Amino acid sequence: MFYWLGAVTLAVLYNLWTCIARQAFHEMQKQHVPIWLCFDGFADLVYLLDIGIQFRTGFLHHGLIVCDSKKLCKKYINNKCFIIDIISLVPLDLLQFYIGIQPMLRFPRFLKVYRSVQFMHMYESRTGYPNLFRVANLSHILFLGLHWLAAFYYLISEADDFQGSWTYPKQEGEYTQVTRKYLASLYWSTLILTTIGDSRTPDTNLQ
């Protein structure tokens, strides 16, 4: 179960890291559509298999492990996690056939994060360096937050047509490179969070 939870966690982190980046930085999505489709499909398969595995996962009752398949199914179905797992697989991304490419339609997949939390608790109880693991986990959450803020910063700049001193510069020359877009947005998201009064003043209410 430990290794399976690790695989589910990788699928969850894939969705948390890539969906918002593909939504904000369109080149990432458009230049590698077949690759993203394969990864999306594989992540969804892991989610689906996890439902099957949870139907077969034993539990303790009065100190004894329950292995009866009917009781296991009943316990899982009556658990709120079953509802979360079903909602997390709602195929909203199929709407892209009608409204165009919108990777953030995969947002229900984020609900599966509770399995990642289970994995983190299990890993922390097994590792010989729990404090180091907590620091690494906290650092990862921090970087994930900065990653999302960078994407929001670029989306806001795009919504404002890159006007004003606060937004990402006009897309000319080296500023058209997706790597430059991401790194510059990450820099500004970090700067906005870590400084007070030293960053540029927003020009609009949205900013």
Automatic annotation (TrEMBL):
<dbReference type="GO" id="GO:0005221">
    <property type="term" value="F:intracellularly cyclic nucleotide-activated monoatomic cation channel activity"/>
</dbReference>
<dbReference type="GO" id="GO:0016020">
    <property type="term" value="C:membrane"/>
</dbReference>
<keyword id="KW-0812">Transmembrane</keyword>
<dbReference type="GO" id="GO:0044877">
    <property type="term" value="F:protein-containing complex binding"/>
</dbReference>
<protein>
    <recommendedName>
        <fullName>Ion transport domain-containing protein</fullName>
    </recommendedName>
</protein>
<keyword id="KW-0472">Membrane</keyword>
<dbReference type="Pfam" id="PF00520">
    <property type="entry name" value="Ion_trans"/>
</dbReference>
<keyword id="KW-1133">Transmembrane helix</keyword>
<feature type="domain" description="Ion transport">
    <location>
        <begin position="2"/>
        <end position="197"/>
    </location>
</feature>
<feature type="transmembrane region" description="Helical">
    <location>
        <begin position="138"/>
        <end position="156"/>
    </location>
</feature>
<dbReference type="InterPro" id="IPR050866">
    <property type="entry name" value="CNG_cation_channel"/>
</dbReference>
<dbReference type="InterPro" id="IPR005821">
    <property type="entry name" value="Ion_trans_dom"/>
</dbReference>
